[in-house]
Amino acid sequence: MTDELFDVRLVVNGAAHDVRVPARRLLSDTLRHDLQLTGTHVGCEHGVCGACTVLVGGAPMRSCLLLTVSMDGAAITTVEGLTEADGALSAVQQAFVDCHGLQCGFCTPGFLTTITAGLRANPDPTEEQARELIGGNLCRCTGYQNIVRSVLRAAELQRERAAT
Amino acid sequence: MTRMFGQPIPRVEDDRMVRGHGGYLDDLGHDALACAFVRSPHAHAEIVDIDVTGALDVDGLVAIYTYEDLPDRLADPLPLLIPHPALTEGRTQYALARERVNHVGEPVVMVVAQDRYVAEDAAERILVSYRSLPAVVGIEAARAATQLVHPDVPGNIAANMLQTVGDVDAALAAAPHILELDLSIERSASTPMEGRGVLARWDPESHRLRLWSSTQTSTGVRAAVASKLGLALVDVDVITPDVGGGFGVKIMHPWPEEVLVPWAARQLGRPVKFVEDRREHFISSAHERAQLHHVRVGFDRDGVILGLDVRFWHDHGAYIPYGIIVPMITSTQLLGPYKPGAYRVEFDSLYTNTLIVTPYRGAGRPQGVFVMERTMDAIAATLDLDRTVVRERNFIQPDEMPYDHGLLFQDDRPLIYDSGDYPTLLDKLKKLVGWDEFEAFREAARAEGRRVGIGLGCYVEGTGVGPYEGAHVVVEPSGKVKVATGLTTQGQGHQTVFAQIVADELGVPLSDIEVVTGDTRRFGYAVGTFASRAAVMSGSAIALAARAARAKALKVAADALEANPDDLDIVDGIVRVAGVPGAEISLGTLAVLANPLRYAFDDAAKAATQFAVGDTSKPPVGEDDEPGIEGRDYFSPMQSTFASGMHAVVVETDPDTAEIKILRYCVVHDCGPLINPRIVEGQIHGGVAQGVGGALYERMAYDEAGQLQNASFMDFLMPYVSEVPERIEIDHLETPSPLNPLGIKGAGEAGVIPGAAAFASAIEDAEGITITAMPISPSELFELRRRHEERSSP
Amino acid sequence: MKPPPFGYSRPESVADALATLARLGPDGKVLAGGQSLLPILSMRLAAPHHLVDINRLSELGYVRVEGGDVRVGALARHAQVLADLPARAAQPLLGKALRLVAHATIRNRGTTVGSIVHADPSGEMTAVLALLGGTVRVATTAGERDVPARDFFVGPLESAVQPGELAVSATFPVLPPRAGTAFVEVARRNGDYAVCGVGALVELDADGAVSSARTAYLSVSPTPLVLDLTDAIGSEPDFAAAAVAAREQVEPEPDIHASADYRRHLAGVLTERALREAHAEALERSGRD
Question: Is the ipTM of this complex over 0.90?
Answer without folding.
Answer: yes
